[in-house]
Amino acid sequence: MRTVQDRYAFVGVALPLSVLVAAGALFFGGGSSGSALPWLTLAVVVTLVVLVVREGVPAGLWKVAPIVLLGVWSALSITWSVDPARTWTYANRSLLYAAVALLGMYLAGQERRVAYALAGLLGAVCVWALAGKVFAGLVPDYARVARLREPVGYWNGLALAADIALPLALWVARSRRLLGMALAFGWLVALALTYSRGGVAIALVVLVLYAALGGGWWFTISTLLPAAIPAGVVVALAFVLPGVTSDGQTSHTRARDGALFGLVLVVGLIATIALARLRLASPGARIRGAAAIGGVVLAVAAAGVVVTHAGGWWSSFTSTQVTEVGNGGSRFGDTSSNHRYAWWTQAFDAWQEHPVVGTGAGTFAVTNLRYRTSYLDQAVEPHNLPVQFLSETGIVGAALVLLTALFFHVGIGARRDGVKLALGLALPAFALHALVDIDWDFVALCVPIHLIAGMLAASPTRRRVGGGAALAVGGVALLLSLSAFSVWLGDRYAGRASEALGTPAHAISLARTARSFDPLSIDPILTQAVAAWSGGQNDLARSYYLAAVDVQPHSAEAWYRLGWFDLHVRHCPRAALPELDRFTALDPQNRNNVEYDAALALVNSGTPGC
């Protein structure tokens, strides 16, 4: 029989493995693509199987039941989805997050180590993010759009990482003041350079919550100010360097201004360290009273501004203007939702048609094409997680999302021991941010969030399981891994098939392999059609186009490709007309709707040719 010390020594393996998983997600998450899903899934489920077999299952499993059921429900929605291929990927994503939450439960009791590890990882993310501005060749795409976004791959996502990091920086500063303030300084600069309005607002919320729930007002203010003042100066100087903060800059400008920005960053960090050595005395009763009065005055003034401008702000927020909000610093004063309100309305319209089960997980792209009001108003997610799951998975899915949030957030206000508070504030930060963005699409954000959620929901208690239960866990793990890798392999072979179109027979063969791994995707079918057509096999090509609309009858692209082929290759407008009509119904704002007009004109001419 193993000793208690042996038992907990083995449990410690969960921490380094979890840190590796979080690091992989943060640095190699692949943005919103699913490229990292199979590898992360494999790493998580293998770790879980080993922990279950050796240590049993953690107490409090009921707290992760809603997210597990959400993943299962998302998988079931494949059967009625309007885009089953994307639903499969989305189900894999949700099931990964459920598995990560389960893994997090094995970290219960190790909150301090997890906090230090996560603070270190986020510090590395911050360094990498800012280095992309200092060294012009590190992120070439900054020449096109300057908003800070790597390594997460999305500016608003990087801003959410800042919102998670700042309370941790304050907690670290309690015992390691210089390190904590350096982390705060770096993330304040990075947050500003993302130009994320929501990220800045949520940062203010979590910092207020940290101070109010146990961090202490004076400690929070006296720790942030020495970091915020140099960070503000660095950001101000960054905005006068076009190579750092302006779009469309040359490599020479970016290299020159990046070097200057790097120098300013170093000076700002030195200033932060110098200021950190100054210990501000706690204010007396009179100063605290004056501060309280000043706070009330500011609150009243802010309320007056809100009341005065609420109508105009709401009008701007709900506007259906087709122009995008600019990427410069001026966006901080813009109250437009940047199409979000329109997307929420579209998602709600789709939900009304399928209120119980929705259109299938991850299928808003189809909804958006059908309901959008302009050619530019296009998105793959409605930028609001509860609304998204309501539209895509119906009342059932939305209820599971709310239960997940409820179970994970219970007790955050009671976590006043410092480390649990700093970690726990990542959850409301994520919840608030998910009301206006697409965080579920980014493993870089959701993996650390669900690790934290699982850890805070559990206790160190374990319950042994029998051999049959362990075998069942292994079977589920194998199934999840196969599911994730099947989609990934299908995507890889589909990409190779597209690249091989110069040799039609080889392209068709590769696409056939892609379809064997992912029979729900139409990409390899469309590649087969193009390959057959280029090889002079028009009848075979049309059979592939027909197969595509059979697999995904709600795909506007599949109907357009079939209609275009019948109109321009087979010269048969009578066949093309209903196909292009279906295309226009699925995507009424698409500029290619002129093909329908051309087919209709030929049919009405009396000499359609077919």
UniProtKB/TrEMBL annotation:
InterPro entries: O-antigen_ligase-rel_domated, TPR-like_helical_dom_sf, WaaL-like
Keywords: Membrane, Transmembrane, Transmembrane helix
Limits of the O-antigen ligase-related domain: 258-401
Membrane topology: Multi-pass membrane protein
Bilayer-crossing regions: 7-30, 36-53, 60-82, 88-107, 114-132, 152-171, 178-195, 201-220, 227-246, 258-278, 290-314, 394-412, 419-436, 442-458, 470-489
Gene Ontology annotations for the cellular component aspect, listed alphabetically: membrane
Cell compartment(s), UniProt: Membrane
PANTHER family: LIPOPOLYSACCHARIDE BIOSYNTHESIS PROTEIN PA4999-RELATED, TEICHURONIC ACID BIOSYNTHESIS PROTEIN TUAE
Protein known as: Unannotated protein
Taxonomic source organism: freshwater metagenome
